[in-house]
Amino acid sequence: MNLKVDNISKKFGNNGLKEIGFLLQQGDFLCITGQSGCGKTTLLNIVSGMLTPDTGDVYINEKNIYYDMKEKERTQLRNQTIGYMMQGNSLIPDLTVWQNIICPVELVGKKVNQKEVKKLVKKLGIDNVCESFPSDISGGEYRRVLLARVMMLNTEILLVDEPTSNLDENSAKIVREVLYEMHKEKGVSIIVVTHDQEFFAYHPKRLSLY
Amino acid sequence: MLTANRFALQRINHQRFRSLIFFFLVFIASTCIFGTDVFMENMESGVKHAENKIGADIIVVPSDYSDDAKEVLFEGNACTILFQNSPVEKIKTVEGVKHVSEQLYLKTLKMDCCSAAGVQIIAIDIHSDFAVGEWLKNKGIEKLGEDELIVGSDCGLQVDEKIGFYDRIFTVAAVLEETGMGYDESAFISFEAANKITANPQYKELFHEKTGLSSMVLIDVDERYETDTVQKNIINISYNDGVSVYSTSRLAEKLVRQVNYFHCLSYIMNAFVILLATVALFSLITVSFHQRRNQVGSLLSVGIGKKKIMQVFLIEYIYLMLAGIVSGIILTIVFLLPLHSVIKQTLHLPYIFIGFYRIAFLSFKTIGINFAILLLALSFSFYQIMKLEPAILAEEQV
């Protein structure tokens, strides 16, 4: 699975992304860094098909996701090919943690492997909050639930926005280890937007935005 | 399994306050729409039925009792009406008169040890009467004995029960079906029985021991003649007899005007309620969608399609709406049915229950109106939300 970002530009307010391009190949681990407001999240939004760029193209296996695909196909793409863990409070407040984790799979008519979910939540250390609602869990738990939700999709590419920000060291370590494991054992291509220097010890590819 | 249905139910349960507000809005709108519809149709049906039930094209009453006649026919106010001299024989000679039938209206006296007071007694000739007589023949009742009577549907009496009027004991032979008019609170006896009452010396002051009295002449016009022409001919022939001649439709005209007035009011009220419900539901759904737009963005970010998201919202509102509509309809039925007689008496207008088929139709109409509002509001809100890009909906920094 190849992801090619070709000369992407997007203006927002006084800031903007200008002519960004990179190639992500099967099994790559890319860390994107940069100052606040430089467009890291915008880049992930564009790559995931959630925000149309002003100029430039995004290709998945040579297919332009904005010109060769309709919106419906881009939505399917995020369920089958590109998993995207957003930065904000994007859990559904009316569903329990467990339901939030399984909803991207079960709402599209597939069945989840309960054992697999139990194993995953245990690994992420959120097995004790599965029946809670998002409003009742801590910030660290919240981010791990977001990660679990996107991991349930078993996609070939994973986009993760600030997975360890505001987490205590223990929670951050768990998140990093889970991402490394996915990369090593499942061969998932991962793009992480982060300020966390610990990720660089993993020797990823790096992209710095200014 | 987390289905759209379960998702929707969980949203209802988790957002109880918002769900309750939505439920009550629909409940109030449905109660008003359905309630006014049923009320108006009961009244319209009452007037229509009253005209048909009288059966006659023309009615002749003593001039002094014109208002009493209208009241007794349509409002059920009991009274005694008597012709000085019955014009029936003269009327029979008028060209265009096909059938003639007489009725005698007597109001029962104050209650004593064995009499019921304030009840309207109507003496009829079972063989010539167009209204009650026809109905009795259809029921297979060919004769009405001197000690038998037929009661209206609102008299609260059953077949074979006994009741006393003017010191005579009568047995209920049949109960008349609901007419929506004064007949419902009246008791019908034969002219033979009425003659026994009027000839009784005990009531000399009232009836002067006379027999063959009458209060009203009902006329059926030959199809080949215009009712207005026959009416004019009757007026000409009985000019000096102190009688008033009405066509039935004319007699019901005031009622129709009153019903139209109520109709107009109900239209205004219905329009107001529908407008209010539309604005309220529109606002509630739009605000609710706006508040949850980041959830829509979140679902889109993990690949849940727009159709599925719309399905979740739709199911949620359909459940709340159905609960509101069904509760509104049930409350209206529970409130209107037991109070049917009270409303009828209070209105002083013909009022008849429209039946369960019509109730079912009006229920579907209420459901239809509410669902049209819902679909309109949902489509508008969904369009407003879905024209934005998923990243903007998710309120990510862009």
Structure description:
The complex is a heterodimer of chains A (210) and B (398). Chain A has a single domain, classed as P-loop containing nucleotide triphosphate hydrolases (Rossmann fold). Helices cover 33% and strands 25% of the residues of chain A. Chain A is built from six helices and nine strands, in the order βββαββαβαααβαββ. With 398 residues, chain B is α+β, with helices and mostly antiparallel strands. Chain B folds into two domains: 4-49 and 255-393, no CATH class; 85-241, no CATH class. Helices cover 56% and strands 13% of the residues of chain B. Classes of the chains: A alpha/beta (210), B alpha+beta (398). Chain A binds chain B through residues 10, 12, 37, 41-42, 45, 48, 50-52, 72, 75-80, 83-84, 86-95, 99, 102-104, 106-108, 111, 133, 149-150, 153, 161, and chain B through 1-4, 7, 10-11, 14-15, 294-295, 297-306, 308, 389-392, 394-398.
The low-confidence runs of chain B, each spanning 5 or more residues with pLDDT under 50, are none
Taking strands numbered 1, 2, ... along the chain, how are they ordered across the largest sheet of chain A?
6-7-8-3-9
CA-based gyration radius of chain A: 17 Å
Largest sheet of chain A: 5 strands, parallel
CATH homologous superfamily title of chain A: P-loop containing nucleotide triphosphate hydrolases
Radius of gyration of chain B, CA atoms, in whole angstroms: 30 Å
Overall mean pLDDT score of chain A?
A: 90
Task: Determine the N-to-C terminus distance of chain A.
Answer: 28 Å
Total strands of chain A: 9
CATH topology of chain A: Rossmann fold
Portion in helices of chain A: 25-40%
